[in-house]
Write a structure and sequence with these properties.
The chain is α/β, with parallel strands linked by helices and about 150 residues long. It has a single domain (about 1-145), classed as Rossmann fold. The protein is built from five helices and five strands; from the N terminus they run H-E-H-E-H-E-H-E-H-E. It has helices spanning about 1-5, 30-35, 55-65, 85, 110-125; strands spanning about 10-15, 45, 70-75, 90-95, 145. It has a five-stranded parallel β-sheet, with helices on one face. Strand 3, helix 4 (about 85) and strand 4 (about 90-95) form a beta-alpha-beta unit. The longest helix is centred in the C-terminal third of the chain and has 16 residues, at about 110-125. The protein is globular.
Length: about 150
């Protein structure tokens, strides 16, 4: 369909999306492979069970294996405490709740929380964490998309 529209828009697909529950036991690896190969997704998003909740590290590990070279993003729950661990497997993260005042979604962005997250990201990179297979160099802040 993108070809028919002559569009070069990239599709980031959220697999086993938060706030949803599959009717049967889900296989995250298979779901990702189907999304990439049949759905033609350009990138995959893996989220926790709800807004502000990080995905299970084992789910991220399995997602990384299934994604291969397809970019993988954390869709929820990234904080200054876990950014290094989450980006051990992921290529980037979508961040919102943890940047808001008091961690409340409807509050404005808190510059101190942003600074903490960036500091943690720089520290993780210096320690060799959060550098998926050495693919990321340069400014680590480019790996985050703030909402």
């Amino acid at each position: 369909y993108r070809r028919e529209l002559n569009s070069n828009v990239k599709i980031l697909a959220d697999v086993l999306v938060k706030h949803a529950e599959p009717l049967s036991t889900a296989n995250i690896g298979l779901a990702i492979e189907e999304t990439i190969h049949r759905g033609l997704a350009d990138g995959i998003i893996v989220s926790g069970c709800a807004t502000g909740y990080a995905p299970d590290p084992e789910d991220l590990r399995q997602a990384r294996l299934a994604c291969g070279d397809t970019p993988l993003f954390v869709g929820s729950g990234t904080t200054w405490e876990n950014v290094g661990e989450l980006l051990r497997y992921a290529d980037g993260a979508i961040v919102s709740t943890s940047l808001k005042r008091h961690g409340q979604l409807r509050q404005p962005i808190d510059p101190l929380r942003v600074a903490r997250l960036l500091e943690a990201l720089h520290s993780a990179q210096a320690e060799g964490l959060g550098t998926y297979n050495g693919r990321w160099t340069g400014n680590p802040a480019e790996r985050l998309a703030g909402v």
